[in-house]
Amino acid sequence: MEYLGEWTGIASFGQGLIALAFGASFVSLVAFLCGWQTVGRKAFYVHATSTFATIALIFVLFGAHRYEFEYIWKHLNNEMPMRFIFSAFWGGQEGGFLLWMFWHNVLGLVLLQTDSKWHNTVLATVAAIELFLTSMLLGVYFGNFQLGLDPFLLLRDAPSNAGLPWTARADYLTAFPMFQDGQGLNPLLQNYWMTIHPPTLFLGFASTSIPFAYALAGLADRTDRSWMKPALRWSIFGIGILGTGILMGGAWAYEALSFGGFWAWDPVENSSLVPWLTLVAGAHLLLINRNRKKPMALFSTYYFLLISFLLVLYSTFLTKSGILGDTSVHSFVDSGILPQLLVYVLSFVALAHFMLLQSATWKSVFGAILALLLIVAMKGYVVEAIGVFLGMLVVTSVKAYRTDFERTEEEESIWSREFWMFVGSLLFLVSAAHITWQTSLPVLNRFLEPLSPLLAQWGESWDSQFLLDLSKHNLAPGTDLDQTYHLVQVPLAVLIMAVMGLAQWLKYKSTNIKTVAKNLFYATALSAIGTGTLIWAYPFEWWELPRVALLFTALFAVFSNADYILRMARGKWKQWGSPVAHVGFGLVIFGAVLSTSQKDIISQNQIGDISTLNEELNNREDLLIMEGDTLSMGPYFVSYRDRYQEGIHVKFRMDYFEKAPHTYQPGDVVFFDGMVFEAKETHEASPQFSEDLEDHWMFIPFPNERQAKTAQLWKAGVPGERLFTLEPRIQLNEQMGNAPEPDTKHWLHRDLYTHIKWGRVSPPETDEEGWMGGRTHTMQVGDSMLVGHTLLTVDSLRAVLDDEKPLRGLLQKDLAIAACISLKNKERDTPHQPMYIVRDSTVIPDLYEADDYGIKMRIETFDPQAETLEMTVWEHESVRRDFVVMQASIFPLINVLWLGCILMAIGTSMAVWSRWKTDTKPRIHA
Amino acid sequence: MKRSHIISLLLVAALIGSFIATFTSTSRSVNFAEATQFAGEECKVSGTLNTAFPVEYNPEVDPTKTVFHMFDATGASKRVVLNQPKPTGLENSESIDLYGSVVGEEFHATEMLMKCPSKYNENNHVLMGEDLQTEG
User: Fold this and answer.
1) Is the Cβ pair A469, B23 closer than 8 Å?
2) N or C: at which end does chain B have fewer Cβ atoms within 10 angstroms?
3) Residue B131 C-alpha, separation from nearest chain A C-alpha, in angstroms
4) By residue range, what is the domain housing residue A54?
5) pLDDT(A191) > 60
6) Each residue of A912-923: pLDDT tens digit?
7) Are both A696 and A817 inside the same structural domain?
8) How far is the alpha carbon of B47 from chain A, nearest alpha carbon, in Å?
């Protein structure tokens, strides 16, 4: 059957391109392995060209709104502005893989231009990685095993639509409106950060593969360590790009998501941070070893570079396979490629460990066991096979470490730069291992699952709650970030920062420690002064000691490296790279720790209606504010002006006013803490009432009528000039649920971050006459409540007299109570008298309407003993006051974090540049 | 390289310590019955929203109190008081993870994670909707 209006041919063409790219990468791999350089290069060009063509073709499909393609239909709709086309492109997994492949090919093409003895081996690895990546796009099924997700899959061919009647109609594209518009990109991703963050991150991911490839090449020929120079350049490049990419993700979260920060230790964030940490460690070991005759920590050098890339693969596996499930707030989709991703990760893990072994015997044993495990896994014992495999990795690593690497027996001097760089690398590794462990708990659960009955049995016989908990195989990282991450990560960071500040001043081989101590004097003194200032300026608690220590060492790292630039590297541009990057990293840590730990939630409820606040339950971080009201909040007054809709956003205009001191006149009466005071003289209020109490106020134990009527709550300030307006918003998102987005006021030294916790995005539900759902309250004489703009007060209760009964349409036998109610809008208006009527022991409902106020009410029950009544009050939509629940926080010095990020990027670029210059110089002259 | 061996060993020991610490800092995953046993202790309960009861949220009364009922893994239902404004999408959530403790007859949750129907599944749902089949 011919489908009408469908680009069927393009689908086949696209699939052809992917198949070609797949085949070409295979040819390239084989050719490079066999040393046929020309064939390998040509095949790689074919591969790269068809990959780029695939990407271009998908952009064309996006541009032409071809909704017959599942990928387009899922990530685009007619409304979406074209500037988000990039975000839409990498909105799905297929696009993510293509983006990764794009960068990987670009890097591969750069490597093709180099000409060294490592060329073929390195490119073989690059081609092998490409082979696997391309296979992610094949979209072929072998029984239940799905190989890849086809980006050119037609909607009617999608497995989920198989057999549906519409797929059999040739004119389905025109017959159903459903196919003339797509589902659209998740609005959360319609953000400029989503245009630049993923490409940067994926370039970082892709760049980890090059040190990996060089390390494998180095393992194949262990006599020559000249691979280390290019590997070092690429490692620093990767550190710069990946670091920037990660922090851009933080910036996106901070600007567009409403969890109130830039880092949440979410599995997605963690799994991109971990490879960065190990890459930093690896690069520093390369620095040590690249020029040394006798290598130091050679195994670790290889190992760190290898695992950096393997951890990138593992990160892909974690985030794309759906295995993380419920442990992340991100929604992960199991798209059926878990087995393939697993094979991908494990293949490269196996390859790396195979190459770590030197002896042919061990290599063949490794290979044989691997083949055996593969058979076991095919038989269905996957988890068990992987468990044994992991054990085997440990054995191989230990064996390789002990015997397969050249080593020096002489001790490094404790005051040598390489010794402390090595210590720093180990610290990075521990940090990475801890984060990986926490992030991998859902994976660990899969391993605990088969052991569950055994663990339960042991747990019972040994009465161990620990084992019983394990047997449930549902471990999850704790929600207390201090316990889960900071407890370990903060002390590690303290040490890392200290080492970073110290090692810059040490020389290779050996240093005179007295000179170093003298050199570090300024940095130490400055950071001590800085930390002292911080303790004075911010309310640190005693348990935050590790945090304060971290601020101290971070400052130390910053000052020490800055000092190094000023005194040692003045004018020597080539040496600036590493100290600038170190200053940047120190600032990142300093800014992150200070702005997070001293984040001040200024919307905390200081005063509230105590009768409705449940002390224990209220989290007191959110502020309810009615439209038009102005409330005191931290150092400001905040007012909710109005809301309006713009595109997919409902924006709430929050005006911020400066807090001007309140001037009290003699005779002014205030409440404070349940007591009444009268002002003795004219004075300007201090921030705290207690400061004014003695001099300016008189306690009134028994207020007279005037005092009781005019008394108002004491306040320190009054709203002054309007300073600025923030517009936090709620994004209307039909697919994922409405999502709040913050708005932030930036200053140099701090940010004010405001977001809506709850707000109405559409008018409330009403009946035909415009009345909103009623609410029942229990009230006593003297009680008041606010309905819209009106203050409703129960003034008194009285029995309805016999002679007024006919006037009110009552029978003489009726018993009736009238509640005298005053309504106060601008003027006080009395009396309104809804009645509670009992006729022959039946309650006759009496609905009382105060039309002018848009209020109607009905007394439901009356309790003569307690003198309370239950009253239902309805509010008309015309008088309704809109309100929002908002949260506002101040992030101090958060710009230090972003400045650090920029310096880190600049520093790493300088380092790459100067290394490239010096490394390539001899060749130019030769 | 002996000195670095010592440092490595120290760090590995610290690492293993931190792994073990994980087991104490992770929240205990339980059902409502077990949570009642450990009343007052912080734990985690996973389940699904009980739609037989309405989700109550009256911001005018208390902006940070949301009340709903949830089924745990065993199918038992309990009233949950969440100390947060009503999370968007609660009514459509597929699964809920609560962190908190049992107080009296209620579960008081301080934190909550939700899993909402993914875009992917929802699309399938839309495509298989009855309107489309009858039309076709």
Assistant:
1) yes
2) C
3) 10
4) 1-185
5) yes
6) 999 998 887 655
7) no
8) 11
Query: For chain A, how many structural domains are there in total?
Result: 4
CA distance A814 to A843: 10
- Do B73 and A505 meet the contact criterion of CB atoms below 8 Å apart? no
In chain A, whose CA is at the least distance from the CA of B9?
A426
Element (H, E) at A500: helix A487-503
Rounded distance between C-alpha atoms, residue B136 and residue A486, angstroms: 58
DSSP A485: I
Closest Cβ opposite residue A164 in set B64, B89, B128: B128
- For B27-118, CATH number out of 2.40.50.140, 1.10.760.10, 2.60.40.2470, 2.40.50.180 equals 2.40.50.140
Residues A108 and A127: their CA atoms lie apart, in Å, by 8
Q: Which chain A residues have a beta carbon less than 8 Å from that of B15? A: 430, 433-434
pLDDT category of residue A608 using cuts at 50, 70 and 90: very low
**Cβ separation of A426 and B7 shorter than 8 Å?**
yes
pTM given for the model: 0.88
Distance CA A105, CA A110 (A): 9
Co-location of A699 and A794 in the same domain:
no
Whether the link from the prior residue into A831 is cis, omega within 30° of 0, is yes
Phi, psi of B102 (to 5 degrees): -85, 130
Q: Token pair for residue A248? A: 């851009």
Residues in chain A: 926
Q: What pLDDT, on the 0 to 100 scale, is given for residue A65? A: 93
Model pLDDT, residue A154: 92
Q: How far is B100 from chain A (nearest CA, A)?
A: 11
Q: Check: CB of residue A28 under 8 Å from CB of residue A43.
A: yes
Check CB contact under 8 Å for B136 and A614: no
Smallest Cα–Cα separation from A904: which of A586, A581, A564, A587?
A581
Give the Cα-Cα-Cα angle A349, A136, A352 (nearest 5 degrees).
Answer: 15
pLDDT value, residue A773: 78
Same domain for A34 and A172, yes or no, is yes
Structure confidence at residue A34 as a pLDDT band (50, 70, 90): very high
As to burial, measured by CB atoms within 10 angstroms (0-12 exposed, 13-18 middle, 19+ buried), residue A162 is: exposed
| Closest-approach residue (CA) in chain B for A93 | B120
Of B110, B115, B135, the CB nearest to A326: B115
H or E segment to which residue A824 belongs: strand A815-824
Inter-chain residue contact B119 with A735, CB threshold 8 Å: yes
Mean pLDDT of A616-640: 79
Give the whole-angstrom CA distance, residue A180 versus residue A726. 38
Which of A598, A617, A634 delimits the end of a domain?
A598
Burial class (CB in 10 A: 0-12, 13-18, 19+), A572: exposed
pLDDT tens-digit series, residues A324-350: 765 554 545 566 788 889 999 999 999
Residue reference for tokens 């170093």? A516
10 Å Cβ neighbour count for A165?
12
H or E stretch covering B96:
strand B95-103
Q: Tell me the ipTM for this assembly.
A: 0.77
Nearest-10 Cα torsion for A363, A366, A372, A376:
-150
Cβ-Cβ contacts under 8 Å between A and B: the total is: 180
Confidence of residue A607 (pLDDT cuts 50, 70, 90): very low
Euclidean distance between CA atoms A449 and A471, whole angstroms: 7
